[in-house]
Amino acid sequence: MNLDxxxxxxxxxxxxxxINSKAIGAAFPHAAPGGQYNREAPQFWTGGFWGGILxxxxxxxxxxxVYKILxxxxxxxxxxxxxxxxxxxxxxxxxxxxxxxxxHCDGNEQARVRGLKxxxxxxxxxxxxxxxxxxWNDGEWEDSQGLAIIDCLMNLSLLYWASGEINDPRxxxxxxxxxxxxxxxxxRKDGTVCHIVRFDPVTGKRLGVVGGQGKAPDSVWARGQSWxxxxxxxxxxxxxxxxxxxxxxKTADWYMDHLPENGIPCWDFMADSTDDYAKDTSSACCAASxxxxxxNLCTDPGEKERxxxxxxxxxxxxxxxxxxxxxxxxxxxDYGTVHFPRKRFINQPIIYGDFFYLEALTxxxxxxxxx
Length: 371
Description:
The protein is mainly α. The protein has helices at residues 3-24, 49-61, 64-76, 78-83, 91-106, 109-123, 152-165, 169-185, 222-239, 242-257, 281-297, 301-322, 351-364; strands spanning 126-127, 132-133, 147-149, 196-199, 206-210.
């Protein structure tokens, strides 16, 4: 375990993102084919991750130009919030790394209100009969009223924050109910998770698993497994219920046991010789950040060290095999895959891969994460 290498990676990543801040500015990058980040509309689900990266940078540097960019990003996100209809379950990914991070940093009241509005929007997607937060809208996925997805486990942090912020248990109750539904309906006996489960939106009855971004409904989509690792750890951290820590450890153990020697997962753990060329480092970056959370929650010293070492091992391999700290490209971590079934951005830097990589490195330096 060479923590000096990761400390150096952290310093280089901060310097690179300062350079990127001048080139990218107040925009909403997603993927970097050819090394340069594209631009998405503010309402796209990844709209918060560039802001999240810049908040991690600002905490370290207090650069006033970065702060100006962050305020501009946050103001641009007011448009989707006001328009409302294009927003869905991923509002946690959009406003936790932007408005809530801003509020945590300097107590900005307008940022607090933005975060609370986003939390109310997410809570409003709760299906009482099925105890789940609805994924997407019909514009993204036809007949989506009964769909729930593993990704949403990460968005629950917005509800936990809102519950504590205004001393109202309703938000936490909704988040906990959804987490329990995921634990009961998404996690298989071996510790793997599915991507999408369909429920009857009227009765709440589980109807079955739906194919999503993985290879098949019964496969193991790599990023989905990482959402579970980190998401279950977050729910344990916020509620104290140890069954979620057990779930986080179980999903993390399976993940590490099935990684290749270089630590870089394929887009789906069931990939074969026809499609295993597509990797997904964003999954490994997210898993590493989640494993640090698991380590922090463990009370047994041996377990604490074990999950910390797992995170460090992943970050070392990502740094050795996939990092780029040059000024010639904008991505920090290469070989991410957005959506293999739709052939979208395969083996490219992805903004959320870069975010979780920097977040994990920040935690190793004693800093706070975003989620």
